UniProtKB/TrEMBL annotation, chains A, B:
GO CC, alphabetical: cytosol
Protein's job: Serine hydrolase involved in the detoxification of formaldehyde.
GO molecular function, one term: carboxylic ester hydrolase activity
Catalytic EC class: hydrolase
Species per Swiss-Prot/TrEMBL record: Huiozyma naganishii (strain ATCC MYA-139 / BCRC 22969 / CBS 8797 / KCTC 17520 / NBRC 10181 / NCYC 3082 / Yp74L-3)
Keywords: Cytoplasm, Hydrolase, Serine esterase
Protein's name in the database: S-formylglutathione hydrolase
Family: Belongs to the esterase D family.
Active-site residues per Swiss-Prot or TrEMBL entry: S165 (charge relay system), D242 (charge relay system), H277 (charge relay system)
Amino acid sequence: MTFTVKQKINVCNGKLLRMSHESESTGTTMDVNVYLPKQYWQCVRGNEALMKPIPTIYYLSGLTCTPQNASEKAMWQFQADKYGFVVVFPDTSPRGDDVPGDPEGSWDFGHGAGFYIDATKEPYSKNYNMYTYVHEELPRVLDQHFADTGKHVDFLENVSITGHSMGGYGALCGFLKQQAHYKSCSAFAPIVNPKNVPWGQKAFNGYLESKAEWDLHDPCELIKQTPREERRHILIHVGDADPFYEEQLKPQSIVEASQDTPWANKIELNIVAGFDHSYYFVSTFVPQHAKFHAEHLGLKEH
Amino acid sequence: MTFTVKQKINVCNGKLLRMSHESESTGTTMDVNVYLPKQYWQCVRGNEALMKPIPTIYYLSGLTCTPQNASEKAMWQFQADKYGFVVVFPDTSPRGDDVPGDPEGSWDFGHGAGFYIDATKEPYSKNYNMYTYVHEELPRVLDQHFADTGKHVDFLENVSITGHSMGGYGALCGFLKQQAHYKSCSAFAPIVNPKNVPWGQKAFNGYLESKAEWDLHDPCELIKQTPREERRHILIHVGDADPFYEEQLKPQSIVEASQDTPWANKIELNIVAGFDHSYYFVSTFVPQHAKFHAEHLGLKEH
């Protein structure tokens, strides 16, 4: 349960903690970065009376990424200080010599490509339990860990989720399956309809025992079955120069799937001209996503 | 003279151009990134009357870096759009199989470590002419290249310079030697007194024919000989948790050297608590440096 803090890095007016811990769900050591904004340190120093604990945004990264990519390139930290939220950057898969990867050594399956689902197929089902890890275990153990220093952060209830590409997919799935849990969901260039695109099909074929399970992990199917609580919204940005737009992302699919459901007109899909799939794209729209989540988390600009 | 545009990347409200060109000074192909802010594209589209051409900030990167590091991690782009300046990110050395590197293969000399000086010693003097490249050739050929699309950018006169670590050193040298040229200079964790620290001594021993030349390349010596034009200032930030603080940076040295010179009290040195040497540190203080340069370039917030 205990976290090892490997590095504490000053950035903006807060600190980024590079941590690791032994995960029950994955059976491995998992890396995770947590940005604690200036408001957290003001509380720790006792300089600020806390009306309620600081909310958390979970950011799920894309294929091949570690917690470092977004920490270094997405610039959530400026926004976290502006509104007063914590940002958690989990890893994208279990890792290690004992963890099976892709037998063909590709970058879009296995290590760095856990797809945020619980695998049901051998040999992946032992370690690849990223759904349980990200949406249940990690928030719980973070809550326990930080309880020692006072209940300054809310890792469990007043929380939102976002992500990029495979991580945007992971965010949508987590939100739609547990939407009472997350106050809002956003995504940067997400895979919205994995069962119908190559990246998703490869992941589902590899991690899931039977095709009957696929719909349980596809946002375009989930959205048809998920009741919508009031004030829940989804914000999506995708660049129209994204090289994966047509083949892997097909962002219109989720808007189409949401017609005749309570989610109709509750998904704001922005196709932005000229943007690609990189962190240049992500960092450009982080301020808009931060504002969106801040509103749902009841935060105001500081 | 001609640039090849390898990639044009949308970021913020402008575009980052990844370019390369054949350099006369280095005798090699040099990579350079140029961020053209939203104001540039408004001019190109003819939507905005230009009072005067858009000024330029040159950003010199540190040891081992390419134009990519700062482009991805320093977040100058937001500031460039805010005030309306172009940012140029040159490479840190000539590169290629024909370019001699460090015989010992270290990372702090040779490829990626050109130190922004003109080498006088064989075999480096043929290619390592980074002073001439950065301060003379590059501005001139950028001016020629962009003249084709109208004189929207001022690469030559209303310009400022900044940099990180070795690049902060390069910025200080260029500013002090040609200070009529740059309107202002700032530096993130610069090497201010290279002749007295290991990184600088290694570079000077390697690139310079004789020890008699060292003072010509040391900001702490240059500052004693450089007249100060009105309105010229230097802004420096260094983290006190920077692992290179004591051995390589010694930032107080330049403030001490400036006493009894026209630069006394014209250097704002900020020792910032808890910050390290990384781009987490740089990106945190880029907004302050952008504001500083904007003031010297006659720019207002847009």
